[in-house]
Amino acid sequence: MNQKLFYSLILVALGALFFIPFLGGVRLFDWDEINFAEAAREMIVLSDYLHVHIDFKPFYEKPPLFFWLQSAMMNLFGINEFAARLPNAICGIISLVYLYNLGEKLHGHRFGLLWAVAYLGSVTPHLYFRSGIIDPFFNLFIFIGLVNLILASWKRERLGGAMTAPKREWTYLLIGGFVLGLAILTKGPVAYLIICLVLLVYWMLGRFRWFITPAQFLTFSLAASLMSLAWYGLDVYLHGPALMREFLAYNIRLFSTPDAGHVGFPGFHVIMLLVGCFPASIFAIRALGSLFIERNYQREFKRWMLILFWVVLVLFSLVQSKIVHYSSLCYFPLTYLAALTLVQLEERKIQFNNWMRAGLILIGGIYVVALIGMPILAHHMDIVRQYADQDAFSQGNLDASINWPWWTLIPGIWLLIVLTLAFRWYNQRETAQASITLLGGMAVFITLTLWFFIGRIEGISQAAAMAFFERAQEQDVYVKTYGYHSYGPYFYTMKQPSANPNYYNDEWLLRGRIDKDVLFIRHASEEPTLLDSLPDVRKTGAKNGFVFYRRRVR
After folding, report:
1. What kind and span of H or E run contains 43?
2. CB of 482 closer than 8 Å to CB of 531
3. DSSP assignment of 155-207, as one string?
4. How high is the pLDDT of residue 254?
5. How far apart (Å, rounded) are the C-alpha atoms in residues 443 and 96?
6. Which helix (H) or strand (E) covers residue 233, if one does?
7. Contact indicator for 364, 282 with CB cutoff of 8 Å
8. CA atoms of 228 and 182, how far apart (whole Å)
9. What is the pLDDT of residue 65?
10. What's the rounded Cα separation, in Å, for the pair 47 and 413?
11. Residue 71 to residues 13, 79, 232, 472: CA-CA distances in angstroms?
12. What is the edge-to-edge ordering of all strands in the sheet holding 518-523?
């Protein structure tokens, strides 16, 4: 067995070990996880895999590819959290193997291994492969599309030597275009926009030198279009332009206005990448400066990665909606830059300096304090209540009866040990041992944190509501949120298509001649709401910041 195959299989095993177990151990989180799982569930219920629906109405915000993957898993493993998250666990395994093999071609075996492990051992890149959101596949498809376009340009310019030898430049272009088309089919044409912006910046920085010909760019674009038009074009042909019109309007609105209240300051994504991609982010900062890189094509690839990083960061810093996963495509170039630094530390071309030490202490310290402090504060809820939001809903969340035993301190203590050992070996210039300890230890830390914390966080934030929806599965009732939006009433009630179109009329549900009972849920508030004033709507209970009502058929 050759080295590449051996380490690829090792990474498959590591990915399976870290990403797959306990995927179904906690409920899906509102909004995105439940939203996407519900779209996949409704494909199965309706036996309609061409269209995306939410609450059995057309849903124009996302194309269907990721929902096809989720519905395939649901058909195999049932409609549950495990099946909803499994596609991203598989994506994580594919990503680790791809990064290792690409890194091995670019810089050698050690670099490829460090790149893959840097991705595995950084917080948000790791977490996304254990989630049910769209972005992991979306980002991987964009990245593979861009890499193939880069290889095509190298083939044309005879750069890269044996690395690009197996294929012709047109083959790279077609593969890259087809994979980019999969990205468009996953989340929309913003994938093509990002690639075009990266190419434009590279072209401008290269003083308008044609690194690929216009004909080659057109071929790449046509290949991307063919994949996406397999769905977009078919739907337009069968049902007219409604889907395309609504989808484009949604994307324009997303870029120009804060979506669903997700507004933030311009530096939001900088902070999220610095803290979320710890520890890779600390090492990546050093690679933003000059490094000794021997080969021309290696310097060129670093240039491409820097452009990709800054294009994505600037683009989504300008977008009005500030959501963590919008900048998640930065994870690929960021971990690449981190691996460059780590390799040069091992080769003693650069030193483990005070800036790296300070960054690891500062950000790592935040995680240690948070993970050790949270279980301790949980036993002093009076202090937490003083500093939490004082509204009835937030205070009600804190009423959740959550057990915090002593062993919930383990993740924070583990990370403290990992950081201490890593510092010791970095200071002794045992950099290879230090890096693997840090990154491998972080992967274990993330897993421990999920095991010990995520269920408790879910218990505080949404468990009371989701349990309310689950109880409704056994009843022939309508279920509605009042005053806030949630996808829980669809997925966790296992809702079926309504035979009565009045179901979509809130006024009818509140005051009309209903044909079956209606269950309402709202956030707790200090002031009475309309639900409290209607004579035939009865409050049935309250728990952890949620208030429940029932309107019975007369």
Report:
1. helix 32-46
2. yes
3. HHTT-SGGGGTTS-HHHHHHHHHHHHHHHHHHH-THHHHHHHHHHHHHHHHTT
4. 63
5. 13
6. helix 214-239
7. no
8. 7
9. 95
10. 49
11. 25, 8, 19, 23
12. 478-481, 518-523, 546-551, 537-543
Residues 218, 210: Cα–Cα separation, whole Å:
13
Q: Which two tokens stand for residue 161?
A: 């030597």
The reported pLDDT for the residue numbered 360 is 95
Taking the C-alpha atoms of 300, 302, 303 and 308 in order, what is their torsion angle to the nearest 10 degrees? 130
Residues 360-382 as b or e (16 or more Cβ within 10 Å = b) = beebbeebbeebbebbeebeeee
φ, ψ of residue 377 to 5 degrees: the values are -65, -30
For residue 222, what are its two tokens?
A: 């046509």
Amino acid letter, 20: I
Distance CA 99, CA 113 (A): 8
Answering whether pTM is above 0.85, one says yes
For residue 186, the one-letter residue type is T
Specify the 3-state DSSP secondary structure of 63: coil
- The CA–CA distances, whole Å, from 252 to 12, 87, 111, 242 equal 39, 28, 40, 16
Q: Report the SS3 class of residue 365.
A: helix
Q: Which conformational region is residue 105 in: left (phi greater than 0), alpha (psi within -120 to 50 degrees), or beta?
A: alpha
Q: Is the CB of residue 151 less than 8 Å from the CB of residue 172?
A: yes
Residue 547 burial by CB count (10 A; 0-12/13-18/19+): exposed, middle or buried? buried
Torsions phi, psi for 349 (to 5 deg): -85, -25
| Amino acid at site 21 | P
Name which of 522, 529, 519 is nearest 546 in CA terms. Answer: 522
Tokens of 187: 């989340």
Residue 464: partners with Cβ closer than 8 Å, 6 or more residues away: 400, 543, 544, 545, 546
CA–CA gap between residue 9 and residue 12 (Å, rounded): 5
Burial class of 255 by CB neighbour count within 10 A (0 to 12, 13 to 18, 19+): middle
CB–CB of 102/333 below 8 Å?
A: no
User: Dihedrals φ, ψ of 295, to 5°?
Assistant: -100, 150
Residue pair 157/213 in contact by the 8 Å Cβ criterion: no
Please list the ranges in the chain whose pLDDT falls under 70: 1, 162, 251-264, 320-321
Identify which of 52, 18, 118, 16 has the alpha carbon closest to the alpha carbon of residue 340: 118
Tell me, rounded to whole angstroms, the distance of Cα 197 from its chain centroid: 22
Q: What is the pLDDT of residue 363?
A: 96
Domain ranges of the chain: 3-252, 355-452, 466-551
Q: What is the DSSP string of 368-434?
A: HHHHHHHHHHHT-HHHHHHHS--SHHHHHHTT------GGGGHHHHHHHHHHHHHHHHHHTT-HHHH
- Which pLDDT belongs to residue 263? 57
Cα–Cα distance measured from residue 53 to residue 32, given in angstroms and rounded to the nearest whole number: 14
* CA separation for the pair 357, 145 (Å, rounded): 36
Q: Which of 474, 485, 470, 477 has its CA nearest to residue 522? A: 485
Q: Is the peptide bond before 31 cis (omega within 30 degrees of 0)?
A: yes
